[in-house]
Amino acid sequence: MKIGEASRISGVSARSLRHYEDEGLIVPGRCGNGFRDYCQSTVDRVLVIRSLLESGLPVRLIRDVLPQLTDSASASAAGTESVCAEFLDEVRSHRDRLAARIAVLSAQQAALDAYLRDARGDR
């Protein structure tokens, strides 16, 4: 599919798709005329990238962790022995910050739910 369709399906702008390519996060195929050609697996990868970016993971970490998240064959073959401890610490730290944010958001959601119940008179 062309970049416009990949953009529509993934919900990611064409500009972002080009940026992901520039950063080495995706490698779309090329048609004979030089146009980018996106397959479904690349669009699926874009959705993972978007999710990771929205969680606040920096591109440099996404570039390293992405193959482990999207290529089950390489994930089992690579294992964690080949991943440096510093990188794992960074990912763990990001995960812990994300868990803390989730806890705060869950508490806020519970407070809003309670407020709405009280406002409706549900007790």
From TrEMBL:
Lineage, top ranks: Bacteria, Bacillati, Actinomycetota, Actinomycetes, Kitasatosporales
Source organism per entry reads Streptomyces venezuelae (strain ATCC 10712 / CBS 650.69 / DSM 40230 / JCM 4526 / NBRC 13096 / PD 04745)
Database matches in Gene3D superfamilies: 1.10.1660.10
Entry keyword DNA-binding: yes
State the UniProt keywords alphabetically.
DNA-binding
Q: Which GO terms describe its molecular function?
A: DNA binding; DNA-binding transcription factor activity
What InterPro entries does the record tag this protein with? Answer: DNA-bd_dom_put_sf, MerR-type_HTH_dom, MerR_fam
Per UniProt, residues of the HTH merR-type domain are 1-68
PANTHER family per record: HTH MERR-TYPE DOMAIN-CONTAINING PROTEIN (PTHR30204:SF93), REDOX-CYCLING DRUG-SENSING TRANSCRIPTIONAL ACTIVATOR SOXR (PTHR30204)
User: Under which name does UniProt file this protein?
Assistant: Transcriptional regulator, MerR family
